Amino acid sequence: MPRIIALANQKGGVGKSTSTLNLGAALQEQGHRVLLIDLDPQASLTMSVGIDPESLQETIYSVICAVIADAEHPALTDVIRATAAGVDLAPSNIELSAAELDLNKATMGEMILREILASVKERYDFILIDCPPSLGLLTVNALAAAGEVMIPLQADYLALKGVNLLMKTIATVQRKINRELKIAGLFATMADTRTLHAREVLASVDKVLANRVHIYKSVIKLNVRLKEAPIAGESILTYASDSNVAEAYRALAREVLHHDA
Asked: What H or E segment, with its residue span, contains residue 200?
């Protein structure tokens, strides 16, 4: 059985897609079979591996629609693509923005993704789900399907303030939908540790949240290479293999492997 991990934060721009790709690539580099699910209509994860979302005829949205309609095709295996990063991807595009309405109308719409992932569980060691920057039904689907949730947190005061709302949503899903869901932990992203503000936010995270959630030691520092890698359609592990940020994702992967949520 794979570990299914949702990367979630309702705030945009905190590095969810970047972290989904690079954590997945780091896990793959360490010998694991990895599937990434792009559950964000903005399709940043899809673009980051060099795929043009607008060129796609079938995406994860096509699979969602098929399950809702009780159709056999397309199945998840029909839309999964191999990537240069070494991981497989179920891609997305802007059509996924219609899924919120579709899922709201569907019977047990919050459980659709869990049903979809059941068909590929034997093929992978890890399934990482890139959630949209909202707490709508797509994110709830990810939390319902996952065994764990990881929270990427930008080293910024306003980003820190939004964590409580996310924690409440996770608690509701745990109570009403998925009792097996655990918070694997929180990790800092886009941290410019040269600034006092970033260092104070990181200190606040340890002070305020350490008694409520596991805090990963690996800190993803601000690095221009992280912005360049998606343009090349690569993970940071191949684009700038020796960079401090590539090493940080490798370290985060090791923490994920050794930390039991």
From this structure: helix 196-209
3-state helix, strand, coil in the chain (%, to 5): 50, 15, 35
CB of 167 within 8 A of CB of 212? Answer: yes
Kindly report the pTM of this predicted structure.
0.94
Q: How many other CB atoms sit within 10 Å of the CB of residue 74?
A: 16
The SS3 of residue 226 is helix
Give the range of the structural domain holding residue 166, as residue numbers without chain letter.
3-258
Quote the pLDDT of residue 225: 92
Q: Dihedrals φ, ψ of 149, to 5°?
A: -130, 135
Return the beta strands (E) in the chain as ranges: 3-7, 34-38, 81-82, 88-90, 126-130, 148-154, 182-189
Q: Across-strand partners of 69?
A: none
Pick the closest to residue 92 from 116, 58, 126, 127 (CA basis). 58
Q: Which residues pair with 154 in a beta bridge?
A: 189
Residue 47 sits in a domain whose CATH number is 3.40.50.300
Cβ pair 85, 20 in contact under 8 A:
no
pLDDT tens-digit profile of 159-171?
777 788 888 899 9
Number of domains in the chain: 1
- What is the structure's pLDDT at 200? 80
Decide: helix, strand or coil at residue 143: helix
| Distance (Å, whole) CA 71 – CA 67 | 6
Instruction: Check residue 191 and report its DSSP letter.
Output: B
| Cα separation, 219 vs 153, whole angstroms | 10
List, for residues 92-113, the tens digit of each pLDDT value: 999 999 999 999 999 999 999 9
